[in-house]
Amino acid sequence: MATIKDIAKHAGVSQATVSRVLNNDKTLSVSHETRERIFSIAEQMQYKPVRVQRLKKESQLSNKQIALLITASDEDELLDPYIKQVRDGVEKVCGELGLVLSPIIRGSHIQNVSLQEIEGLIVVGTIDIEDIRHYYDPNNNIVLINNLLPHFCCDTVHLDFRQSMTDVLTHLLQLNHTSIGFIGGSEYVYKLKDPSNTTNKLKDPRSAYFESILKEKNLFNPAYVHVGEWSTSGGYEMMLKLLSQPDKPTACFVGSDPMAIGALRALSESGIKVPDDMAIIGFDDIEVSAYVNPPLTTVKVFTEQLGRSAVQLLLDRFEGRTVPLHVTVGTELVIRQSCGYKS
């Protein structure tokens, strides 16, 4: 049976170097060519073949550099923790796999960054693929997270908004709510060349499915729909507009938890009891949602799984897959006191 000594002799290096390479010691300063030669000799000599194959794959991954491009600014992340949670998910998985993740690239800064050495790109937010390829086009190792445009030429990861809205509305209908409001935000196609351009507006899928599901049941009321800024203050202001109407809904879905927290504040100031006078459901399940008064019923988004799926798709690309894959990540309705319970 081959030993480390045998591998070292054939590779022309010390036994210590072979041992550290075969244990993927990342503190070892040795060339990529030397690492590959040691793994190749170990394979030829049948030295612990299963373990060597695994370590070789890990070593090759550690040399892959990927980048994370985010449309959101630092300020956006402060306003909506969901964005940071997606980013954290990608970073966590890359750390587990030993992948080299370059510093985060904000969309507004991409003109100052070179992507020529990057072997894979994960994009969070809605950007047209041609706009992305203007800055990054050495290969098709691109994964889009939560991109609302149809992209069939590259990999995508997105939430199952249809199912999440079905769960929300089914629950409210089972609680005998037939007049249901909607508070949400607008989506835009982010232009990398001109970040200030917000002319290309998209309909948020939560709003689209909310409308289509209620229309099927003849329960949709456009007067109950308010769309504005994705922020706590936006939720506050839109709830005040909803309450200013003579005919008010008995329940309201709010497109993000930060917006829902603002909406709860508006309801409290207006003397509207939750859930007795109006039931509220949010979206994201950020940490603070369980601690507001009353605790917020919300749609839980598995942000780490979004990041994990995106990284796995990149790994598949590195191994030679060329067929685009589209991954849908499910959600879960977390029922708390803000909307009551089914009897």
From TrEMBL:
Protein name, UniProt field: HTH-type transcriptional repressor MelR
Keyword field contains DNA-binding: yes
InterPro entries noted in UniProt: HTH_LacI (IPR000843), LacI/GalR-like_sensor (IPR046335), Lambda_DNA-bd_dom_sf (IPR010982), Peripla_BP_I (IPR028082)
Keywords per UniProt: DNA-binding, Transcription, Transcription regulation
Stored PROSITE patterns: HTH_LACI_1, HTH_LACI_2
Cited SUPFAM superfamilies: lambda repressor-like DNA-binding domains (SSF47413), Periplasmic binding protein-like I (SSF53822)
Leader sequence residues: none
Taxonomic source organism: Paenibacillus plantiphilus
DNA-binding among keywords: yes
Residue span(s) of domain HTH lacI-type: 2-58
Stored PANTHER family: HTH-TYPE TRANSCRIPTIONAL REGULATOR EBGR, LACI-RELATED TRANSCRIPTIONAL REPRESSOR
